[in-house]
Amino acid sequence: MSDKKQPNKKPALGRGLGALLNDSPQKKPATDVLPSQPVVGIYEIALSEIQVNPYQPRTHFDKTALEELSESIKVQGIIQPITVRRLSDGEYQLISGERRFQASKMAGLEKVPAYVRTANDQQMLEMALIENIQRENLNALEIAHSYQRLLAECNLKQEELGDRVGKNRTTVNNYLRLLKLPPDIQAGLRDNVISMGHARAIINIEDIDRQLAIYKRTVAEELSVRKVEALVKALSSGPEESSPEKVAGLDPVKKYEIGKIQQRLASHFGTKVQLKADGKHKGEIKIPFRSADDLNRILEILDII
Predict the structure, then answer these.
(1) Which is deepest, 63, 79, 177, 191, by most CB within 10 Å?
(2) Which residue range is the domain that position 77 belongs to?
(3) Which InterPro entries match (predicted)?
């Protein structure tokens, strides 16, 4: 087997791992004999010689799915080789294919077929992130974190990132915006309590307390994405609410409390509620409605009909 590398090719954007490698992959028969320098090829490598990937973007592996993959590997073997880089003689580091790597260990394999790539730390990070984004079933939050890492750690611009992962800039930006949500909502998205559609609707509300109120209502009432979008739209339109700062006779703390109550009421009823109070704790609450159907919706919430 020749150690000669293939001629370098100009990297092409939007083509996954091929865009990140300076050499052109050439499949070779699996062999136990490794060249003195790492080159692109497929080799049989002992699992004990492979370190896990420190840049792995996936934070959770489904145990049942891993066991099913392990059973499949026992019967069929590994159909798609894993990808590693060589650190030294008898020492490799996983670039991609951690599910296959872990399932192979569960299946009792001693060796696995692997592509050996030449990559520095930054290239390895980029390859690992893009490989997982393209091939693994990452949830929306994991994808968002992967995009953020590509921007921050691989010094990519959003346009370059979009080319790398085959997405337009708007799609990339929609994922990145998810990272601005409060931790509780991010956790709900990570655990599939809500979908990306729910999260994208909620993020259009700027106030964090309102975001959390809508999120809790969404979970409690199992609201659809369309209902959450309608709720957000109702909060974003309608009559101008009275500013707590303009309420006469109240100290700043009371004004702040009135403002928070007003926001919670608005989130609960799905419309901008007006709350007025004076220094003697007297006042009024106004709940506007835009149609007969909207009135019926509010009456249902009040449990009047």
Answers:
(1) 177
(2) 1-180
(3) Chromosome_partition/occlusion, HTH_ParB/Spo0J, ParB/RepB/Spo0J, ParB/Sulfiredoxin_sf, ParB_dimer_C, ParB_N
The tokens for 285 are 């609450």
pLDDT score of 193 more than 90: yes
- 141 with 108: CB under 8 angstroms? no
Known catalytic residue: 71?
Answer: no
Kindly report the average pLDDT of the chain as a whole number: 76
Q: Which residue bears the tokens 């592509």?
A: 115
Residues 186 and 169: their CA atoms lie apart, in Å, by 22
pLDDT at 243 (0 to 100): 45
Of 32 and 81, more confident: 81
Do residues 91 and 49 lie in contact, with contact meaning Cβ atoms separated by under 8 Å? Answer: yes
Q: What's the DSSP call for residue 20?
A: G
Sorting pLDDT into bands at 50, 70 and 90, what band is 59?
A: low
pTM beyond cutoff 0.85 = no
- 70 shares a domain with 110: yes
Residue 253 is predicted with a pLDDT of 52
Are both 158 and 106 inside the same structural domain?
A: yes
Residues 6+ apart with CB under 8 A from 81: 42, 97, 112, 113, 114, 115
Instruction: Report how many domains make up the chain.
Output: 3
**Strand, coil or helix: 19:** helix
Residue 186 inside a domain? The answer is no
